Amino acid sequence: MDDKRLFYLIHRVHGKLSHAVDQFLWDRLQITSAQLMALFYIRDHDGCLLKDLGEGIQLKSSGITGLVRRMEKNGLIRRTTCPHDGRGFRLYISPEGERIASGAMPMVAALNGIIREGFSVEEMDTVFRFLNTLLERLSGSLSFHPGQEGQDNGGRDPAV
């Protein structure tokens, strides 16, 4: 019987997918998925602030600082002090970063194809609707109501 523990499954898929994609990208471009997401964001928002990048790719400030430092060191982006706020930094994609981002597009399309393999258009539409709805719900804070624990868990322990 298929496992029906949503949180558990989403957690496992996230871990396995992140690891596989990082390995795939590293073998081909010597870049991580977090760096690629940051490159895509910076390319689409050239001159963005460091905090905007963090919000855009869902990374906390402690993680974003190290990520940007490594990307700058590897020549993927350049960082300049914000003229309006000396404490802030503006981020710009470098020619090397643009080359990597452009070269990654067919790879991302291939990865999406691998993920979609074996599913119909209708099934994928349901997956997209589910994931987008989940993202919307998680934009706020989770709230639980009495009696809600353990609903729809297939009779399993809700904590697992």
UniProtKB/TrEMBL annotation:
Signal peptide as annotated in the record: none
Keyword terms, alphabetized: DNA-binding
GO molecular function terms attached to this record: DNA binding; DNA-binding transcription factor activity
GO BP term, pick one: response to stress
InterPro entries documented for this protein: HTH_MarR-typ, MarR/SlyA-like, WH-like_DNA-bd_sf, WH_DNA-bd_sf
SUPFAM superfamilies from the UniProt entry: Winged helix' DNA-binding domain
Pfam families: MarR
Protein name stated in the entry: DNA-binding MarR family transcriptional regulator
Organism: Desulfobotulus alkaliphilus
Lineage: Bacteria, Pseudomonadati, Thermodesulfobacteriota, Desulfobacteria, Desulfobacterales
